[in-house]
Amino acid sequence: MTERLLVLARHGQSDWNLKNLFTGWKDPDLTELGVSEAKAAGDRLKAKGLSFDRCYTSGLARAQRTAQLILGQLGQPDLPTVRDIALNERDYGELSGLNKDDARAKWGEDQVHVWRRSYDVPPPGGESLKDTAARVLPYYIREILPAVMRGERVLVAAHGNSLRALIMVLDGLTTDTIAGLELATGVPLVYRLNADTTVASKEVLAA
């Protein structure tokens, strides 16, 4: 029987997460806590007896390092890993690098909330979640899903919004319900897919 295993993991805490900054396509590294979160994610996957045939990650260091740390804990440091900007975090445009409280002071709490949580309203010069989905989903369908359907066990280490775009489709969420979805750093989501590519089961490997 084909396993059709897909595991999604948001990167561990980054330096800019800690500083409450909009990050987007900026490229800070993980904090010490972020490193610990990534290693713990690998340990929880190992405890489930999981291993992988292929890994996908973004073009950003925090996701790449998270993937490396997870695979290291699994004893698979040399696993083939594909890096692609299609899996990057959404681009926050003019908000990138700003403290979230400073942004609220400048534009107002309601406006910043709309930029952060609406489906199709982008921040100035940046991407909405809809824009992010427009690059994540074709990449998933073209590159990741065929590997899963061939029976390869796939790990995707990426970002809060690129993964939210994917989870929206996997979990059948609406543009309204996706707004309330928060992904914790370093917590793997274990999906098993049916032969028709729908989700057979989902498990959240929280601490």
Automatic annotation (TrEMBL):
Alphabetized GO MF terms: phosphoglycerate mutase activity
Positions that bind substrate: 10-17, 23-24, 62, 89-92, 100, 116-117, 160-161
Family annotation (InterPro entries): His_Pase_superF_clade-1, His_PPase_superfam, PG/BPGM_mutase_AS, Phosphogly_mut1
Site (Transition state stabilizer): 159
EC class (word): isomerase
Active site per the UniProt annotation: 11, 89
Annotated metabolic or biological route of this protein: Carbohydrate degradation; glycolysis; pyruvate from D-glyceraldehyde 3-phosphate: step 3/5
Catalytic reaction equation(s): (2R)-2-phosphoglycerate = (2R)-3-phosphoglycerate
Keywords assigned by UniProt, alphabetized: Gluconeogenesis, Glycolysis, Isomerase
GO biological process: gluconeogenesis; glycolytic process
Alphabetized PROSITE patterns for the sequence: PG_MUTASE
Top-level taxon: Bacteria
Stated family: Belongs to the phosphoglycerate mutase family. BPG-dependent PGAM subfamily.
Function: Catalyzes the interconversion of 2-phosphoglycerate and 3-phosphoglycerate.
Subunit organization: Homodimer.
Protein name (database record): 2,3-bisphosphoglycerate-dependent phosphoglycerate mutase
Species of origin: Camelimonas lactis
Lineage: Bacteria, Pseudomonadati, Pseudomonadota, Alphaproteobacteria, Hyphomicrobiales
Gene name in the database record: gpmA
